[in-house]
Structures are given as structure tokens and as C-alpha cells.
Amino acid sequence: MKYENALQRAIKGRLERAMELAELFGLLIIGIGTVAAMGVLIWHMVQSDGVTLTDLLLMFLYLEIFAMVGQYLKAGQLPVRFPLYIAMVSIARDLILRAGANTELHLLASAGAIVLIALGVLIIRFGQAKYPSNTDERRVEEAK
Asked: Which GO CC terms are listed, alphabetically (predicted)?
């Protein structure tokens, strides 16, 4: 029994380490891909001698991806808010890209989606402020 538990702990430790390395490798690939995409976008902007609003929104999306990677590396977890921010900017960028082809229904649906996502962000922020998950944050809130 004693050796079986030690073997299980050793296997579990190695599997956890392998998963951590796989996560780091995935984050590295995401970071490299984002840098490459941003480089291509900058190159296209230089070649076209102009910057459009959609270019700026796309750069903002890339920066949000960098922020997500950085937050994951710092805290080891990813807040749900980051993908929601990316979704809102993506919908806004889609609206701008299809400015001439948008129907009234598409505009209303997109605006409604942005409003619903923004409400979701507000609810999440309220929940995090009112009911923090970290016990240290709870102690700080209770001391106030």
C-alpha cells in the first residue's frame, strides 16, 4: 500500500508538470501567433499609407489577447471578462467592416449583442466586488 501511494503521487506529479509545460507551450504559440498577426497588420498599414478604424480595432483585439496571456501567466487563471471584451470589439469591428451591407436587423442584433455582453461584464464585475473568491480579498472587504 505504501509504495502504491508513492507511485500514484509520483505519476500525478509528473502529469501535472507535463500539463503545466503544455499550457506554457500553448501560451507561447498564442503569443507568437499574435505578434506575427500584428506584424502583418502593421505591414499592411504601412503599405496602404493609411490606418482605418478597423485596423485600430484589430490591433486592440491583439492587445487584449496579450493581456489575457499576461494575466494567465501572472495569476494562473483567466478572468471571463477578457473574452467578453474581445467579443464586443469583434462585433463592433464587424459592424464597421460591413457598413454598407448591414441591414437594420443586423444592426439591431449586433447592438443588442454588445449591450447584452456589456451587461454580462457589469454583472461579473459586481459579483467579483461583492463576493470575492479569494479569502484575502474577503478579509479586506470585511475590514472596511
From this structure: plasma membrane
Domain that holds residue 91: 79-144
17 in any annotated domain:
no
Q: What is the pTM of this model?
A: 0.69
What is the mean pLDDT of the segment spanning 25-31? Answer: 92
- pLDDT (average), residues 23-47: 93
CA–CA distances in Å: residue 54 to residues 63, 93, 95, 107: 14, 6, 10, 17
Q: What is the CA radius of gyration of the chain?
A: 22
108, part of any domain:
yes
Q: How far is CA 71 from CA 96, 105, 135, in A?
A: 29, 37, 20
| pLDDT above 80 (res 135) | no
3-state DSSP of 1-37:
CHHHHHHHHHHHHHHHHHHHHHHHHHHHHHHHHHHHH
